[in-house]
């Protein structure tokens, strides 16, 4: 039995320990905002926060997540930084197909929490684990700067 | 549309359809459909020539509810190109609707009702701008007529404002809600009575980022129908649909195209917690079209259990039915193409006397350019959900071609197409992969066998192993140059397996539409030329990939022109403009280019002036010819595709390590009228990034018939670090008098050759094989 707090709500999951958090979120808890892209922590589409740290939920097993607090895209607007990131995403018109953007937003929020005024290079290195096949990278970068400018340090 | 459109009066229109038609799904019977007034000649082209043509009946697309809210049906698939937003812009503007009172309803597959829904070929706005404007103008006219009736005044005194009708002499107003009921009783007006809004009356169309139309939330935000849902994780893609009692399937498909199941040992699979059962799927005989590849499906209570169960399968495959596919080896295949390219092939186009042209030349030059297979690799891997009964099937899937999905699913489970409902979700990227609905058929086959709703999830490994790959290609060139370096003779042999190998037995030559993508319609002014298409067999599934055969054609032609310019010692820009010759319009059939993207050559000639225009614009904006430090250079390429014009300049630095820094990318783009310029820009920005991936990284290869790339550690895609430091999009020729061009694809073909030309300028090293990978490493 795994115990998880997801977006403030406690869940008990009766699944094998090696089940990735991603599939527990999507298939069992029905929280589909977090996306499956590769299953090997190569694309970042499944990024969520675990105890505040960005993790790839497709390779984070329930054994590792047991007892932890998980935040997903569905609740990131409750976070002041997350909210700013979402607003900046809309202002800049980042999304094309949008499929990777939950992961991008979760990574960007984690970046700004750690580094409220990132440089282009900081953004490049932090965000390069997140693939966008539509190629929205320059808008993502612009939106992160925009969110950084709006966020009180 | 050309020709008069006034001979159609839509009859038998459901009288109440306008108020609730779209939502109620009432089947409307039109007295005549798209063939009403088009001359026979015009029916051969454009939207009219697509299966099921176009529809512009407002009852099909627009509903106005009693509370005044408006529902607009979008019947095209949304995959990031923004069509849900762009078509709504068209309708909302022409109707006079308030953006905040508009919602979008995604149409199910039903071309008989909506007209063509096949979302590929960069056609949505090209084919639907005018029909949707007319649908909305009809609805607006009916609302104005309704207000006139209510006020008992002449209709000419009633004009739609924003979500209301204004009696212009008195200033009296009625909201849409107040007149919708009466409007719903009125007949749809004849087309020749419609007055379309002029451009200065548009509020949404043509709107640029930062234009200050006030929305509730933000005055400067780009309009995007799904924007808020996307950033909140609420947007629904294929895998986000959940049905009661649904089970989860993952399939092990044969890794060699055409091989079949010999035996399977699923004893270990059945011990995996959560696994319910395994099922086998038949392998369709070749050519397989959109039929599933077959294999063994693991059915489980969640996706992870299905994946683990699949890992535990022990399968023996019979490769005999696969024939030569089982020996497919990318290294050997390239050698075959190179050898074939030494000999003459099927002649596609010939002008002048090639031998005489070579005789006249004072110098010759030749080169070959190779591009490997690629996978579209949309971030959302293929996925589909199906629920099947004895006489019906319901499918939810991210598909570019809903109608083909309906037919494919029906055929797979022995139903009639009309017994199949296909709900189109958002697509997490398409790029051509989702034009092929094999995954939807798999879901239906399994749902029928299991007796419960089934979701088939493709893993990334499945996606890379079993794509319908972009073709592999070799472009072989020989040219004779005169004393000034201008070609006197031009020979192009273009080799690539064809997409038609999906549908016909062993075709060895490119199909007409593939030849028409920048090969047969080669626009340059060369006195003697021959274009040939030698044989090339297919050994994997070949399919559409964004821009399709334009990619190798543009890479070859734009690289070779740059090589000729260098040999001639002439500036590349000057050289290519000289090669194009003066601004003029070429009638495509006059040069043997009969396909012309399905468009009427009268409306869509090959326009040399527009080609020159994008070259002039992009070089001016990029400051072409400016002095750059050592190790840095600029490259140019231009390509015409999907009846739009694009030119790219890249400013590139190559470090000693071979690392490439792209300082800037400029793209000039001419698609004629710009309906949603904001999304045109983002599509082009995305094309730049995707093109960089094609140049630097993308490669699918085969050995012993099996694809060698499993996931994104082996099939590399561009990441943020690969993106240019600056991307500048320059849109030109925003002119409603020009027939609209495509947007989704035409930005891509010139990117890779521009980058390779820049690398040559920076280093003197000519790239003739893609991807560049580590070719620049010392």
What would you note in describing this structure?
The complex is a heterodimer of chains A (153) and B (778). By secondary structure, chain A is α+β, with helices and mostly antiparallel strands. Chain A contains 6 helices and 5 strands; from the N terminus they run E-E-H-E-E-H-E-H-H-H-H. Helices cover 40% and strands 14% of the residues of chain A. Chain A has a 5-stranded mixed beta sheet, with helices on both faces. In chain A, strand 3 and strand 4 form a beta hairpin. The mean pLDDT of chain A is 97. In chain B, helix 4 packs parallel to helix 6 and helix 13 runs parallel beside helix 14. The termini of chain B are far apart. At the A-B interface, helix 1, helix 3, helix 4, helix 5 and helix 6 of A face helix 8, helix 10 and helix 20 of B.
Topology:
The complex is a heterodimer of chains A (153) and B (778).
Chain A (H helix, E strand, L loop, with lengths): L1 E5 L2 E5 L7 H8 L18 E4 L2 E4 L5 H4 L3 E3 L8 H13 L8 H14 L5 H8 L9 H14 L3
Parallel strand pairs in A: 1-5
Antiparallel strand pairs in A: 1-2, 3-4, 3-5
Helix pairs in contact in A: 3-4, 3-6
Chain B lengths: L16 H8 L21 H4 L8 H4 E3 L5 E5 L8 H13 L6 E5 L4 H4 L9 H28 L6 E3 L3 E4 L4 E4 H9 L42 H5 L15 E6 L7 E6 L1 H4 L4 E7 L13 E6 L2 H9 L2 E5 L11 H11 L5 E6 L2 H7 L2 E9 L11 E6 L4 E5 L4 H12 L6 E5 L13 H13 L3 E4 L2 H6 L7 E9 L5 E9 L16 H4 L13 E5 L16 H19 L3 H9 L4 E2 L19 E2 H14 L10 E10 L2 E11 L5 E11 L6 H20 L5 E2 L2 E2 L18 E6 L19 H13 L15
Parallel strand pairs in B: 2-3, 7-17, 15-16, 19-20, 25-28
Antiparallel strand pairs in B: 1-2, 4-5, 5-6, 7-10, 8-11, 9-10, 12-20, 13-18, 14-15, 14-17, 18-19, 21-22, 23-24, 24-25, 26-27
* Domains of chain B, number: 3
In DSSP terms (H or I, runs of 4 or more residues), the helix count of chain B works out at 21
CATH class of the largest domain in chain A: Alpha Beta
Low-confidence segments of chain A: none
Distance between the termini of chain B: 57 Å
The CATH topology of the largest domain in chain B comes to Aldehyde Oxidoreductase, domain 4
Sheet with most strands of chain B = 7 strands, mixed
What is the CATH class of the largest domain in chain B? Alpha Beta
Q: What's the name of the CATH homologous superfamily of the largest domain in chain B?
A: Aldehyde oxidase/xanthine dehydrogenase, molybdopterin binding domain
Mean pLDDT of chain A: 97
The termini of chain A sit apart by 40 Å
What form of chain A results from the Cα inertia axes? globular
The dominant shape of chain B is globular
């Amino acid at each position: 039995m795994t115990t998880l707090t997801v977006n403030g709500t406690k869940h008990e999951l009766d699944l094998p320990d090696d089940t990735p958090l991603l599939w527990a979120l999507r298939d069992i808890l029905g929280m589909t905002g977090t996306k499956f892209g590769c299953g090997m922590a190569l694309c970042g589409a499944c990024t969520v926060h675990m105890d505040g740290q960005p993790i790839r939920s497709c390779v984070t097993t329930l054994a590792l997540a047991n007892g932890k607090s998980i935040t997903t895209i569905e609740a990131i607007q409750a976070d002041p930084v997350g909210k700013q990131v979402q607003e900046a995403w809309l202002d800049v018109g980042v999304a094309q197909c949008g499929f990777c953007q939950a992961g991008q937003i979760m990574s960007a929020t984690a970046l700004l929490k750690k580094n409220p005024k990132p440089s282009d290079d900081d953004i490049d290195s932090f965000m390069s684990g997140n693939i966008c096949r539509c190629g929205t990278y320059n808008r993502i970068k612009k939106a992160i700067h925009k969110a950084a400018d709006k966020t009180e340090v | 549309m050309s020709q008069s459109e006034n001979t159609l009066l839509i009859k038998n229109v459901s009288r109440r359809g306008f108020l609730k038609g779209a939502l109620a799904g009432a089947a409307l019977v039109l007295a005549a459909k798209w063939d009403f007034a088009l001359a026979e000649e015009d029916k051969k082209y454009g939207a009219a020539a697509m299966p099921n043509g176009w529809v512009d009946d407002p009852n099909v697309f627009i509903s106005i509810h009693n509370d005044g809210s408006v529902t607009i049906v979008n019947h095209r698939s949304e995959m990031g190109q923004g069509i849900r937003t762009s078509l709504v812009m068209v309708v909302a503007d022409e109707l006079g609707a308030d953006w905040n009172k508009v919602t979008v309803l995604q149409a199910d597959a039903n071309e008989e009702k909506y007209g063509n829904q096949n979302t590929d070929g960069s056609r949505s706005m090209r084919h639907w701008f005018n029909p949707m404007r007319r649908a909305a103008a009809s609805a607006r006219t009916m609302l104005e007529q309704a207000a006139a009736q209510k006020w008992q005044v002449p209709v000419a005194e009633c004009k739609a404002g924003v979500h209301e009708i204004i009696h212009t002499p008195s200033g009296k107003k009625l909201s849409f809600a107040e007149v919708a009921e009466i409007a719903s009783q009125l007949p749809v007006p004849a087309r020749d009575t419609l007055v379309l809004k002029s451009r200065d009356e548009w509020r949404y169309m043509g709107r640029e980022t930062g234009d200050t139309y006030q929305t509730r939330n933000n005055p400067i935000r780009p309009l995007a129908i799904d924007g808020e849902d996307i950033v909140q994780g609420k947007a629904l893609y294929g895998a986000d649909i959940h049905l009661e009692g649904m089970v989860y399937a993952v399939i092990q498909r044969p890794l060699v195209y055409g091989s079949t199941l010999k035996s399977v040992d699923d004893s270990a699979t059945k011990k995996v917690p959560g696994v319910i059962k395994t099922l086998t799927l038949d392998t369709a005989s070749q050519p397989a079209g959109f039929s599933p590849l077959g294999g063994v499906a693991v059915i489980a209570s969640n996706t992870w259990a299905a994946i683990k169960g699949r890992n535990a399968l022990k399968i023996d495959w019979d490769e005999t039915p696969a024939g030569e596919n089982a020996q497919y080896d990318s290294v050997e295949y390239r050698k075959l193409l190179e050898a074939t390219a030494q000999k003459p092939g099927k002649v596609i186009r010939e002008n002048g006397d090639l031998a005489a042209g070579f005789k006249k030349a004072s110098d010759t030059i030749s080169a070959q350019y190779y591009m490997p297979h690629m996978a579209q690799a949309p971030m959302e891997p293929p996925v589909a959900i199906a629920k099947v009964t004895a006489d019906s099937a319901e499918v939810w899937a991210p598909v570019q071609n809903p109608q083909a999905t309906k037919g494919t699913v029906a055929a797979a489970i022995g139903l009639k197409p009309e017994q199949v409902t296909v709900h189109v979700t958002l697509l997490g990227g398409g790029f051509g992969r989702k034009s092929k609905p094999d995954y939807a058929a798999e879901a239906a086959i399994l749902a029928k066998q299991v007796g419960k709703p089934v979701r088939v999830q493709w893993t990334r490994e499945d996606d890379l192993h079993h794509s319908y790959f972009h073709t592999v290609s070799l472009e072989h060139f020989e040219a004779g140059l005169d004393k000034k370096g201008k070609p006197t003779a031009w020979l192009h042999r273009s080799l690539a397996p064809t997409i038609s190998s999906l549908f016909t037995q062993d075709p060895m030559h490119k199909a007409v539409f593939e030849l028409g993508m920048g090969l047969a319609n080669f626009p340059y002014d060369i006195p003697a030329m021959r274009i040939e298409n030698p044989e090339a067999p297919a050994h994997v599934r070949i399919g559409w990939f964004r821009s399709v055969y334009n990619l190798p054609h543009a890479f070859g032609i734009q690289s070779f022109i740059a090589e000729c310019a260098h040999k001639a010692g002439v500036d590349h820009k000057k050289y290519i403009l000289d090669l194009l010759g003066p601004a003029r319009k070429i009638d495509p059939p006059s040069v043997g280019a009969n396909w012309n993207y399905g468009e009427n050559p009268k409306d869509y000639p090959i326009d040399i002036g527009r080609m020159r225009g994008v070259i002039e614009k992009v070089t001016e904006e990029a400051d072409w010819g400016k002095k750059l430090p050592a190790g840095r250079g600029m490259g140019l390429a231009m390509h015409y595709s999907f009846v739009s014009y694009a030119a790219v300049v890249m400013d590139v630095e190559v470090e000693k390590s071979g690392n490439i820094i792209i300082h800037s990318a400029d793209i000039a783009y001419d698609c004629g009228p710009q309906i949603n310029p904001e999304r045109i820009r983002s599509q082009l920005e995305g094309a730049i990034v995707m093109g960089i991936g094609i140049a630097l990284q993308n490669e699918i290869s085969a050995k012993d018939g099996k694809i060698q790339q499993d996931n994104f550690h082996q099939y590399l895609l561009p990441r943020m670090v690969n993106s240019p430091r600056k991307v500048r999009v320059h849109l030109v020729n925003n002119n409603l008098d020009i027939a609209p061009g495509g947007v989704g694809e035409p930005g891509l073909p010139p990117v890779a050759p521009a980058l390779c030309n820049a690398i040559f300028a920076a280093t003197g090293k000519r790239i003739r094989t893609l991807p560049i990978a580590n070719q620049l490493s010392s």
